[in-house]
Amino acid sequence: MNYELTSEQKMIRNLMRDFAEGEVAPGADERDRTKRFPKEIFEKMGELKLMGLPFPEEYGGAGADTVSFAIAVEELSRVCASTGITYSAHISLGCAPLYLFGTEEQKQKYLVPLCEGKTLGAFGLTEPNAGSDAGGTKTRAVKEGNEWIINGSKCFITNASYADFLALTAVTGNSQGKREITSFIVSTDQPGFRVIDNYEKLGLHSSNTTELVLENVRVPDENRLGEIGRGFKQFLITLDGGRIGIGAMAVGIAQGAYELALQYAKERTQFGQSISKFQAVAHKLADMHMKIELARTYVYKAAWLKDQGRKFTKEASMCKLFASETAMWVTTQAVQILGGWGYMRDYKVERFFRDAKLTEIGEGTSEIQRNIIAREIGC
Ligand SMILES: Cc1cc2nc3c(=O)[nH]c(=O)nc-3n(C[C@H](O)[C@H](O)[C@H](O)COP(=O)(O)OP(=O)(O)OC[C@H]3O[C@@H](n4cnc5c(N)ncnc54)[C@H](O)[C@@H]3O)c2cc1C
């Protein structure tokens, strides 16, 4: 067993730390206030070959591993979780299904521009009546000649305003009494396709969360992603990988809040001494540090299993569940350690606290992760 990062993983950590602190952190508070999406950050990440980090070089990627991807998400989220989720969704929801299930032509046409950072990746699964029960999709695709006509809607879709195209799921029929779900690659400028970006969110204000409306959207059969009826299985596989990204995002948020709380606790004096000397505060910081280390270790384990080509469904759920609950707990403690200042925008930890909540919801809620783990251990 080797807990040491490889030299490449260390290099990516250093690169991402510099990039996050130099390019992402400075405007993070302002973007949180103005809700501005930082397109320029992702253009720069494209220039650095980060937008296709874990995909092969032949598709414009950097050929790095999943551990490196987790490190990249963590470092972005340590300073700005909105940037972290945008990048995580781009890689694990936007690019991954194309890489895993696309034909060679589809990869050249769609994966390459994503990896080169020319457009952002997105994935349309959730619907107003199909969230945790994503198999309850109502969006329908009906075949007419060599085309599919898609009608329906999707909600809470990350990045779609900045995506030239995205993969989404639709019901294409019934087989043995079960809905047959198929994935399609749809251009966002297709007539009948509308992307609406007007949610008022708790946090992640500078990430893009959208509603999609599809009215008689025509998609050629060559844009079908994988076989008819494979959509359900495909999104389960996609979400397994995505959960490593959300786990890494949660570790980054927790780390960022912990560092701010530790620094504040050392500097703040009450009753004639640094508050970090009060055991109640010191123990909180010790627990924060410990939980973050455990969450990070488990995110890397899930990523490592994926890189080995081993089954990682249970580990992806466990890392996402543990890391997201850690992020929520750590950010709550961070606000507490800063007292009244923790409640104020200027001290940043309230942004981490608001942003952390999404990690317990997106890509499967904590309840759904527990269901998956229970199923995997044979309950
Ligand atoms: C900011 C943001 C970004 C997102 N990005 C995307 C995206 O890019 N693409 C995409 O497709 N989706 C995206 N989502 C959607 C997200 O994955 C869903 O919100 C999530 O899966 C939960 O679905 P729901 O909101 O419909 O809640 P529901 O499924 O309605 O759940 C409501 C509550 O019931 C509980 N519950 C439901 N079923 C069970 C059960 N079987 N056992 C126990 N408890 C249960 C849930 O845990 C939850 O507490 C995003 C969401 C947000 C908020």
From TrEMBL:
<protein>
    <submittedName>
        <fullName>Acyl-CoA dehydrogenase</fullName>
    </submittedName>
</protein>
<dbReference type="InterPro" id="IPR009075">
    <property type="entry name" value="AcylCo_DH/oxidase_C"/>
</dbReference>
<keyword id="KW-0285">Flavoprotein</keyword>
<dbReference type="InterPro" id="IPR009100">
    <property type="entry name" value="AcylCoA_DH/oxidase_NM_dom_sf"/>
</dbReference>
<dbReference type="Pfam" id="PF00441">
    <property type="entry name" value="Acyl-CoA_dh_1"/>
</dbReference>
<comment type="similarity">
    <text>Belongs to the acyl-CoA dehydrogenase family.</text>
</comment>
<keyword id="KW-0274">FAD</keyword>
<dbReference type="InterPro" id="IPR046373">
    <property type="entry name" value="Acyl-CoA_Oxase/DH_mid-dom_sf"/>
</dbReference>
<dbReference type="InterPro" id="IPR006091">
    <property type="entry name" value="Acyl-CoA_Oxase/DH_mid-dom"/>
</dbReference>
<feature type="domain" description="Acyl-CoA dehydrogenase/oxidase N-terminal">
    <location>
        <begin position="6"/>
        <end position="118"/>
    </location>
</feature>
<dbReference type="GO" id="GO:0050660">
    <property type="term" value="F:flavin adenine dinucleotide binding"/>
</dbReference>
<dbReference type="Pfam" id="PF02770">
    <property type="entry name" value="Acyl-CoA_dh_M"/>
</dbReference>
<dbReference type="Pfam" id="PF02771">
    <property type="entry name" value="Acyl-CoA_dh_N"/>
</dbReference>
<keyword id="KW-0560">Oxidoreductase</keyword>
<feature type="domain" description="Acyl-CoA dehydrogenase/oxidase C-terminal">
    <location>
        <begin position="229"/>
        <end position="377"/>
    </location>
</feature>
<feature type="domain" description="Acyl-CoA oxidase/dehydrogenase middle">
    <location>
        <begin position="122"/>
        <end position="217"/>
    </location>
</feature>
<dbReference type="InterPro" id="IPR037069">
    <property type="entry name" value="AcylCoA_DH/ox_N_sf"/>
</dbReference>
<dbReference type="GO" id="GO:0003995">
    <property type="term" value="F:acyl-CoA dehydrogenase activity"/>
</dbReference>
<dbReference type="InterPro" id="IPR013786">
    <property type="entry name" value="AcylCoA_DH/ox_N"/>
</dbReference>
<dbReference type="InterPro" id="IPR036250">
    <property type="entry name" value="AcylCo_DH-like_C"/>
</dbReference>
<dbReference type="InterPro" id="IPR006089">
    <property type="entry name" value="Acyl-CoA_DH_CS"/>
</dbReference>
